[in-house]
Design brief:
ten-stranded mixed sheet; alpha/beta
């Protein structure tokens, strides 16, 4: 490989800027005219919530680095923290313009269906009278206005809570005031009995703000939201051994609302005086202030449909896909038996998480089951899985739960479940100091005829029944005893805090995963150098690990064909002549959140295929406990290869990354028959389930008989 490739970062880009490109792709989904209007509105909301978290975590971390005078720079581009922040602020400004345009476009579309978000200035006389009456009797009693002067200090503004800022004219000059928008009130206020015309709560308060301040005259007002740094450390090393980690996490969560501001959002331009006042009190630079013509909080978009009648809603959203249970009803009561007879692979959200939940429920009541051990990163607030684990403990099984309390923004829910599980008799541990446990592994240990027998489940996604309907993930259930022994060794190592464990089949981070990925890449490079066909196919959420990037570039330059389906951050720039021209990168953004991680090294059925909880990010490869598991069953390997093939041909939701860093949406190869991989897999799951239900057969892929999958392949390839 040319040595000069490693002397330049031309084939790498900054992770923060790459993430912003991903979020722009999310926003651009809202401009697709073929998409239902309420789905477009949800994409705008997802974009804004993504951006909120980006400021709270990534910008917050960089701001801390600048404040502390850190000399650390991005190891891929050499940019300092200050340079990264400056570029982030520059890139984000035009995105707010795009948000405004997208929101306006969707509102125009909704108005054609009689649905309107009405500005206060556009109300009729009777509507204004009704809104004033509503404000005085139902809203104003809940408001707590503040004036700001020598005796009234600037109040704390909670993270992302909407406020009304006002300039007040007094006898001795002017001052400023704030009104917090009550979070307990509904944001949408219907103007008619049919519920098709609405006023937003914050705009109602803005309009009548003068009533709130009594005799004072309001000369200026605006809506604002402050975003605060939420990137706090857990300081685990400073803990005394007898301090409950749950109590420590609860105290840290309270700090999140009080950390330093990193962004100010405004609904309209304001006077220089108010601008200077807010920036000085919040300690923000002008570059950290953004104007948005769209509402500053779009979370109501996900609840909007409940205000509409069923017929209207159905016209404005995608048809609801209910994940299919791929097991006929005759087989659903025998999950433990099925699990011991066949390797099974389930694809969410096309297929349901129900078989796995059923297996855990059966295990909780099975007399042969000795223990259930599981890692938990995120759970549904109403988790059937957790209820089954509690039942198992109550039935005398040993239940060990490796619960990660530091799952960002799910900490409170995990703390609550940890307490409930412990109270029920489960043994709950909280991972290792300095390492989040992000792996997805469940092990059922049985004793049959005097012998220990394992059933293992490994997944790419969380054990969360709600997100299993929204995220694409794979879930493997296997009775392969070698994999089971590896899983048993993993839990034994976690119980004693041992990261140095050795495994025969599983790749376990932080010590084993990255090295094995590098070795697998090197193996394909050697094949190419020996005149054989070297090939690597990767599907994951992000690629940032510099060492892995360098190895991929070396392999590509050495003749290995590399195709990567990376939804979000990709710090590797493909298609550079003589450097990365053997590497293709694309990103799929669609109805479901692409979340599956698959690593394929080699060609066809002889390829080494792994599914994993890990992305190729430094945080995953070096600072988390992650697991990658091989797919060993030939039929399951064939299915995964087929899925990768279909996704690579997607010409509806796929964006190709080019050498100049731009992502361009693919044009359909056949405009009359575009391929949407998510719709394809949905149709495939529904069709297969219907066919096999008719034949009263379970979907077990470890069979060499002709299947619907093979029929669909022939149709697709023709």
């Amino acid at each position: 490989m040319p040595e000069e490739i490693f002397e330049t970062a031309d084939y790498m880009q900054n992770r923060e800027l790459s993430w912003l490109k991903f979020n722009e792709r999310v926003l651009l989904e809202a401009n697709r005219s073929e998409m239902p209007l309420l789905e477009r509105l949800k994409f705008i909301s997802i974009f804004t919530s993504n951006l909120d978290e980006f400021f709270m975590i990534r910008v917050g971390s960089l701001a801390d680095s600048v404040l502390l005078g850190s000399k650390l720079s991005d190891n891929k581009t050499g940019m300092s923290a200050k340079e990264q922040l400056d570029e982030i602020y520059r890139v984000i400004t035009p995105l707010y313009v795009l948000v405004g345009h997208a929101f306006s476009s969707v509102m125009q579309g909704l108005s054609k269906h009689g649905i309107e978000f009405v500005k206060m200035r556009d109300l009729t006389g009777s509507e204004m009278k009704a809104m004033k009456n509503h404000f005085i009797h139902n809203v104003m009693p809940l408001l707590s206005p503040s004036i700001i002067d020598s005796k009234h200090p600037f109040p704390h503004i909670h993270n992302k809570q909407l406020h009304i800022a006002v300039t007040i004219e007094k006898k001795k000059g002017t001052t400023f005031g704030l009104i917090a928008v009550p979070a307990e009130l509904e944001r949408l206020i219907p103007l008619d009995v049919k519920g098709f015309r609405y006023v937003l709560l914050e705009e109602l308060i803005l309009h009548f703000s003068e009533l709130v301040f009594g005799t004072y005259r309001i000369t200026e007002n605006c809506i604002l939201a402050v975003t605060r740094n939420a990137d706090f450390g857990t300081d685990e090393e400073a803990l005394d051994e007898d301090i409950d980690f749950r109590v420590h996490m609860k105290s840290l969560l309270k700090k999140r609302q009080r950390l330093a501001p990193v962004r100010l959002e405004l609904d309209d331009p304001i006077s220089p005086e108010m601008f200077e006042f807010l920036c000085s009190r919040l300690n923000l630079e002008p570059a950290q202030v953004y104007y948005s013509s769209a509402p500053l909080d779009l979370s109501f978009c996900f609840t909007f449909s409940r205000y509409l009648d069923k017929e209207t809603t159905e016209r404005l959203v995608w048809p609801v896909h209910t994940p299919v249970n791929p097991l006929p009803s005759s087989e659903r009561r025998n999950m433990m038996r099925l699990a011991t007879e066949n390797d099974m692979l389930f694809s969410f959200p096309y297929e349901s998480i129900a078989p796995f939940l059923s297996m855990i429920r059966h295990a909780a009541e099975d007399a042969t089951v000795l223990s259930i051990k599981i890692t938990v990163y995120r759970l549904d607030a109403q988790s059937k899985l957790a209820e089954s684990l509690i039942l198992a403990a109550e039935n005398g099984k040993e239940v060990i739960v490796l619960m990660e309390l530091r799952a960002r923004f799910d900490e409170n829910n995990n703390i609550e479940w940890a307490s409930r599980l412990e109270e029920a008799g489960c043994r709950v541990i909280y991972g290792l100091v300095g390492y989040k446990c992000h792996s997805k592994l469940c092990l059922i240990t049985r004793k049959v005829a005097g012998k220990v027998h394992y059933i293992t489940q490994v997944g790419t996604g969380n054990y969360n029944e709600r997100t299993a309907k929204l995220y694409t993930d794979l879930s493997l259930i296997t009775s392969n005893q070698e994999l089971g022994r590896d899983a048993a060794a993993f839990f034994s190592n976690m119980l004693i805090g041992n990261l140095e464990g050795e495994y025969n089949h599983l790749w376990v981070a932080p010590n084993g995963f990255k090295n094995n990925v590098l070795k697998a890449i090197e193996k394909q490079l050697k094949k190419a150098q020996n005149g054989e066909k070297g090939r690597i196919v990767i599907k994951c959420n992000s690629l940032t690990d510099k060492e892995i990037i360098e190895k991929l570039v070396e392999a590509g330059a050495g003749g290995v064909e590399i195709v990567m389906n990376i939804r979000g951050i990709c710090c590797l720039i493909p298609q550079l002549p003589s450097v990365t021209d053997n590497i293709k990168v694309f990103s799929i953004v669609g109805k479901f959140l692409e979340h599956t991680r698959i690593f394929c090294f080699g060609n066809g059925i002889d390829a080494d295929i792994y599914i994993s909880s890990a992305d190729l990010m430094t945080r995953n490869t070096q600072r988390r406990v992650e697991i990658a598991c091989p797919i060993l069953d030939p039929d399951l390997k064939d299915r995964v290869l087929w899925m990768l093939d279909v996704m690579s041909r997607d010409d509806t939701n796929a964006w190709d990354l080019f050498s100049d860093g731009r992502y361009i949406l693919r044009e359909p190869a056949d405009p009359d028959n575009p391929l949407n991989s998510q719709e394809y897999f949905t149709h495939e799951a529904v069709t297969r389930a219907a066919e096999l239900a008719e034949e009263n057969k379970a979907i077990i892929y470890s069979t060499r008989k002709p299947t619907l999958l093979n029929k669909l392949k022939k149709v697709f390839r023709s």
